Amino acid sequence: MWKRSSLPAVSPPGPHAPGLTLVELLAALSILALVLTLAYGSFFQISGAANSLKGELSEQQELRMLLKLIADDLQSARYLANFATKQTTKAVNATGIVARVRFVGKTEFSFIGFHAATEARFFRQRPPELDPGLHEIGYGVQEDRDNNTLNLVRREDYYLDADMESGGVTVILERRLETFSLAFLLPPDTAGSTAERWEREWNSMERPEGSRMPRAIRIGLGLMGRDGQPLRETLEVNLPDALKVGS
After folding, report:
1. Between 4 and 67, where is the model more confident?
2. If pLDDT is split at 50, 70 and 90, which confidence band does 223 have?
3. Is residue 67's pLDDT more than 80?
4. Alpha helix stretches (DSSP H) within 3-119
5. Three-state secondary-structure class, residue 220
6. pLDDT > 70? residue 193
7. Above pLDDT 70, what percent of the chain?
8. What is the pTM of this model?
9. Reading across the β-sheet that carries 198-199, which strands appear in turn?
10. How far apart are CA 81 and CA 220, in angstroms?
C-alpha cells in the first residue's frame, strides 16, 4: 500500500541569512564599469590604429601607382635619330632624354623631358584613333606659394621641336611632394669597366654615338603623408636594348 512521503518544511530565511550588502553591490558595479571602460578604450585604440594603418597603406599604394606611371612613361622613351639635328654644338632638334637638376626654393629637384612612343594620357586634342603615338613628356616640380606646397606635374605635348621643356598640357599629379630625384646609369666605358656609374643629369644629344640613352633610370619619390609622416619609394627602370640608340 502506497504511503505519502512527507517533505521537510522549508523555513523562511532568518535575519542573518547570507547575501549582498549595498556596499558590496556598489563595489561590484564600480569594478564592472572599470572593466567595461578599459575594454571600450582598448577597442577604440585598436580600431584607431587599424584605421591609421589602412590610411597609410592606401597612401603607400597611391605613391607606388604614381611611380608606376612615371616608370611606364620612361620605358617608352625614344631617341629619334632621324629627327635629331645639330648645328655646330647647338642642338636644333632635341630628342631622347634631357634631364637637369634645379632648385625650387632651397631644395634640389629633378626635371626631365623626353620623347615617348606612347598614347596620350591627358592631352586629348585628337580622338584616340588619330593619336600619333609619339609625344613629348616631361616631369617637374612647381611651387604653389598660395598653399605653401610643392606640386609634381606631368607635361604632355603632341609636337616635336627643339624645346623639350615647355608647351602642351600640364597636369598636377601630386600636391604634397617632398622629393623627386632621377639618376641615370651610364653605359659601360671603353676601358671595359663593369662598375656601375650613375649621373643625376642626362642629355641624349650630348652623348656619344651608340650611347644616347641610359641603361637604366632610378626614380626617387617622396610625399608628405596626411598624418605628417613622410612616405618614400625608389624604383629602378631598366631600358631595353632597343631604346638605347633609337631609330
Report:
1. 67
2. very high
3. yes
4. 22-75
5. strand
6. no
7. 75
8. 0.72
9. 198-199, 177-185, 216-224, 230-238
10. 29
Q: List the one residue out of 177, 164, 179 whose CA is nearest residue 218.
A: 179
Which triple of cell numbers denotes residue 25?
A: 553591490
Q: Flag whether pLDDT at 18 surpasses 80.
A: no
Tally of residues, the chain:
247
Q: Check whether 245 has a pLDDT greater than 50.
A: no
Answer for the pair 49, 58: CB distance below 8 angstroms, yes or no: no
Q: Find out whether 98 and 204 touch, Cβ atoms under 8 Å.
A: yes
Cell of 190: 671603353
In the 8-state DSSP scheme, what is residue 151?
E
d(CA 171, CA 124): 13
Distance CA 131, CA 129 (A): 6
- For 153-178, letters b (16+ CB in 10 Å) and e give bbbbbbebeeebeebbebeeebebbb
Q: Which residues contact 165 (CB under 8 A, 6 or more apart)?
A: 98, 111, 113, 138
Other CB atoms within a 10 A radius of the CB of residue 94 amount to 25
pLDDT cut 90: percent of the chain above it: 35
Which residues does 192 contact at the CB level (< 8 Å), separation at least 6? none
Give the pairing type, strands 97-104 and 77-78.
unpaired
Q: What's the pLDDT at 125? A: 67
Alpha helices in the chain (DSSP H): 22-75, 242-245
Grid cell for residue 33:
564599469
- Residue 60 is classified by DSSP as H
